[in-house]
Amino acid sequence: MQIAVIIPAYKVAKKILAVIQAVGPEVKAIYVVDDACPEKSGALVQSECRDPRVKVLFQKENSGVGGATLRGFAEAQRDQHQILVKLDGDGQMNPAFIPSLVRPLLEGKADYTKGNRFYSPRSLAGMPPLRLVGNAGLGFLAKLTTGYWNISDPTNGFLALHSSLFPYLEPERIAKRYFFENDLLFRLALVRAVVVDVPMSAHYADEHSGLSVLHSLFSFPGKFFLRFLKRIAYRYFLRDFHVGSVLLLAGSFLMLMGVLFGGYHWIEGVRTGILASSGTVMLAALPILLGFQMLTFTLLYDVLMTPRDPVHEYL
């Protein structure tokens, strides 16, 4: 299979030539997408790089890392490359890792692979503590939103995609900026694609990340919540209706009834000064407990439904 590397270029003029030079011979094409870079990274590559594999694309306006990557993906797919690899141009990602990243795709074991910096404690030694904590919290939200309970480090941008899936992910609707990797996972979940983590080392030197951890902790949860509701509606009711759907409906109904019934009698008790009887308390607690148990089983069912069979061979 032909492997193409897509490099979004924005303020990476100091690093990008070295990154391109480090890309191994297993890669057949390199697409550098100048995302309206103020440092003219694309023009620099055109004038200084002699690698015949390199093709430079220019964005008229800055579209974010997601927008630049999607532009490169679309171009590489039109050129009939089967595996699309995203590689940042700032030197944080080691191109020597590409063969390991694409191996599950080449072996037909995955539709999408991504790096995982959380696999080994040793690989986390260079990661800033705030980034480590932020990634852990956002990681759980990503699992809940996408249903990919088998992965970690969802914001990792070192990724590879089988190009046959690209049109089915609705590229025009994927988030274009720093929520790109998470939204891409959400779109993959809707088509039941198999996602595999590949262990890699974290590398942080003098590069500046445009993603603020504090900003993402405040802005990402709302985006995760909306996509969680969409996935549940699509996977549990619109596309299919199964035992998980029944458990979700019954559990939610019982918990809601228990809370409303208990809340009503608690307010009445406060208003009248008369304590609720033990029977009333039990009538409120029982549906809450049963509902909680059903929702717990729903969560377990969701974990067991993690995709196992790659879909790119059928597309």
Any overview of this molecule?
By secondary structure, this protein is α/β, with parallel strands linked by helices. It has 2 domains: 3-219, Spore Coat Polysaccharide Biosynthesis Protein SpsA, Chain A, CATH 3.90.550; 241-313. It has 9 helices and 7 strands. The protein has helices at 16-21, 41-48, 64-78, 98-106, 129-146, 180-190, 213-238, 243-272, 278-304; strands at residues 3-9, 27-34, 54-58, 83-86, 112-116, 159-162, 195-199. It is elongated, with a radius of gyration of 24 Å. The model has no long low-confidence stretch (mean pLDDT 91).
Radius of gyration, Cα only, in angstroms?
24 Å
Strand % is 5-15%
Poorly predicted ranges: none
- CATH topology name of the largest domain: Spore Coat Polysaccharide Biosynthesis Protein SpsA, Chain A
User: Based on the structure given, which CATH architecture of the largest domain is correct?
Assistant: Alpha-Beta Complex
Q: What would the average pLDDT be, to the nearest integer?
A: 91
Given the helix and strand composition, which structural class is it? alpha/beta
**Into which percent range does the helicity of residues fall?**
40-55%
How many structural domains does the protein architecture include? 2
